[in-house]
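ARCHIVE CARD
Drawer: 12
Card no.: 0347
Subject: one protein chain, sequence and derived structure
Cross-reference: see card 0346
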Amino acid sequence: MLNKNMFFFVIFIFLTSSYLIAENLNENSCKNLIKALDLNTGAYNKCLFEQVNEKFSVKELKGCQNHYLKEIERLSYVYKNICK
């Protein structure tokens, strides 16, 4: 009887600690996604407000805007589905 109770206690501790570790990893993932969104948003804004033909051509700026906008959309989709 004592072995059975000890077994259930150990299983309970294991499951609880596994849940807490998973929650911590999920929280860290969400923080990293927010940082990546901020970084890509800043880069997109630089492309958006850059003067044409000062450093880059119109085609290069459009490519830059499209690239960062796609990255922002992808990260937003992942954030929405993981970090509710």
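Annotation on reverse: Helices lie at 2-49, 58-82. The radius of gyration is 23 Å.
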